[in-house]
Amino acid sequence: MNTFHFTRPARNVPIDRALVGYVGSGDLEVMIDNSDQPQAEIYIHSSAEQGEQRWLSIIERLEVAHPLPAMRMDIHDFSATPGVIRLRLEQALEQALAKELSYE
Question: What CATH code would you report for 2-99?
């Protein structure tokens, strides 16, 4: 199992905790929690060999469409495809940012 850690620029917006996917599902689990830090801390546990550059590329592409909130994100990857990774990351961010996206 490989562990990667990325610190990314983030915006300070209120977020909720989020959990998507299921670690035993055979693909990917993403958990988001609040952070006292002014950046996004992303921790990835992956069964993929030499996946650090692949993960960095996925996160950088995600940031273009979705500026990251200040948070701690934990990801448990069991060889998910890039499409599943992107879907789970977007689902988790949508849950975490539900208050900000509300039109009430």
Answer: 3.30.230
